[in-house]
Amino acid sequence: MVVLDLVLNALATGLMLGSIYALLALGLAITFGILHIPNVAHPAIVIAGAYAVVMTNRYGVDPVLAAVLWMIPFYMLGILFYEFYARSFESRGGGNTLQSLTLFFGASLVIEVALVVAYGTDLRSVSVGYVGSSLRLGFVAIPYRFLIPALITPVVVFLLWLYLTRTNVGLAIRAVAHDERAVSVSGVNPAAIKRHAFGIATALAVIAGAALVITGPIDPFAGRIHIGRVFAVVVLAGMGTIPGTLAAGIIIGIAESLVMSFMSPSWAPGVAFAILLATLALKPTGLFGAGR
Amino acid sequence: MNRLVVEGLHAGYGAVTVLRDVNLEVREGELVALLGMNGNGKSTLLNCIMGFVRPTSGRVLLEWEGETIELSRSAAHETTRRGVAYVPEGRRLAPNLTVEENLMLAGGSGRGKAKLKENLGFCYEMFPILDERRRQLSSTLSGGQQQMLAIARALMTSPRIMVVDEPSVGLAPIVVEQVISTIRTLQETTNMTILMAEQSFFQAIEVASRAYVLSHGRIIHTFDQKVDPASSEEIRSAMMGIA
Fold first, then answer.
1. Is the separation of the CB atoms in B167 and B87 below 8 Å?
2. B153 and B226 co-located in one domain
3. If I label B51, which of A78, A151, B8, B161 is the partner at 20 to 30 A Cα–Cα?
4. CB A189 to CB B77 under 8 A?
């Protein structure tokens, strides 16, 4: 009975954790998975989004509502940042991956330092009524601080999937990394499409930030432990598949949670990397990727 | 008169000059062939018309329904939206989108938007194979079917003029014939204005009403089949640079 109890709790925690990982990775599924831009700054942007939510929450605004409000400014910041990236790298003969990595790594350090300067290194959290209480289902206790953010992911994934498959702009976003000329001759500006997609990815980072800060307090460096994990989710899903991102996040979340419960919590951060390496070795196109 | 005009066009890449003083004209309802062997500047000329390559001097003008638009100043997607559709060499489809998604992408923006359903219906009627495979990824089509899709995609933008770059490249001879006859049918049934670059001149001159021969970046010959029918041997010699 004790083992069953432990397994069920680990699965429930893993499921919710995984859903939150998927939300963290969703912006990267667009920038890296679809546009092939190695945006290692994504977790740092998520944390910046989380700080925006924390600061708004001080005035009593619900964190999820705050995140939705912050999406527009972040979308615009994303567009500006992409414009800088495109002008300094892509326009000068193709985005060199190593140079782009350096740029985004630098950007993530700048974001972290800016947060330290502005808010210090203290842990910050949001105050909402449901943090601290749990939903009890038989053996399983589900804390609301995991359940609420975990429930956001399927909604966001569904909306994003609709956008990418049902709208003209969505089709262009999916086409642009594969063949810019295909987009041009369809009468759509490929540069504007990439800028817009990067803006959406940045806006999604705020939602992920809200989810993360509801689960627990954050400091300016809280994005770092997620860098490897979000890339693992995107690669395991298969580059650019949005519903696949949710499934991949859940697989990694459950695997981590089981390792935490039955081996040792200190092994957990290695799980995502192990899965990433196994994916690259055994099925480089990912679980749901169509290949190229 | 509605027409596309190229005036005194010079273009090149860096220190290399590819086009020297090119002048040509495509009138409404014509199918004009642009003939020339590889490396003589056909693709560069079409790329200048579309806006993928900026000319060093000269202009490309679209004179249509009383307005004159300078295409040499507009980017390729703007050129497309102004009614000059492009069927690029090598098709350039979005490989990760389905047949229908490729068509919807082209049809859902700019000029074609208002007639989206109508255009889609027309494309499927004209190319039943695309209708059959509408849910398939475009990368899974055969070369000939991909060429059909590239032509259909151009039609989705409700073009005034279609610019077709070497539709025969990479296709088996029998498929080349199908593609060329498709273009002819399209021209005959819809009176579409077409500028087509080709190096398989036998097929091209059979369908074209006029032809320009491009050699070393210059137009060296102009043939008008109605005014002065040239033998295919004469055209071939011109292309090869013998005449």
1. yes
2. no
3. A78
4. yes
Secondary element (H or E) of residue A210? helix A190-215
Last residue of a domain, one of B127, B159, B191: B159
Cα A216 to Cα A125: distance, rounded to the nearest angstrom = 7
Query: What domains can you pick out in chain A, each with its CATH number?
Result: 2-282 (1.10.3470)
Contact B109 A185 (CB under 8 A): no
Q: At how many degrees (to 10) do helices A144-166 and A168-176 cross?
A: 90
Q: Which residues of A touch B154 (CB under 8 A)?
A: 185
Using CB atoms, pick whichever of A168, A190, A240 lies closest to residue B104.
Answer: A168
Q: Beta strand pairing status for A140-143 and B3-13?
A: unpaired
Q: Tokens standing for B73?
A: 């100043």
Residues B111 and B200 in one domain: no
Same structural domain for residues B74 and B169?
yes
Give the three-class secondary structure for B54: coil
Same domain? B103 vs B206: no
Question: Residues A139-159: pLDDT tens digits?
Answer: 788 888 899 999 999 999 999
The CATH number for B210's domain is 3.40.50.300
CB contact under 8 A, A168 and B96: no
Residue B140, token pair as written in the block? 């899974």
Taking the model in full, what pTM does it have? Answer: 0.90
Whether residues B153 and A185 touch (CB distance < 8 A) is answered with yes
Can you tell me the mean pLDDT for A268-285? 86
| B159 close to A (CB below 8 A) | no
Q: What would the pLDDT profile of B24-58 be if each residue is shown by its tens digit?
A: 999 999 999 999 888 889 999 999 999 999 999 99
Q: How far apart are CA A68 and CA A258, in angstroms?
A: 33
My answer on whether B167 and B221 are in the same domain is: yes
Same domain membership, residue B180 and residue B155: no
* A149/B84 Cα distance (integer angstroms): 49
Instruction: List the beta strands (DSSP E) in B121-189.
Output: 161-165
Q: Which of B159, B181, B216 is the last residue before a domain boundary?
A: B159
Chain centre to alpha carbon of residue B48: 12
pLDDT of residue A292: 43
Are B15 and B125 in a shared domain?
no
What three-state secondary structure class fits A272? helix
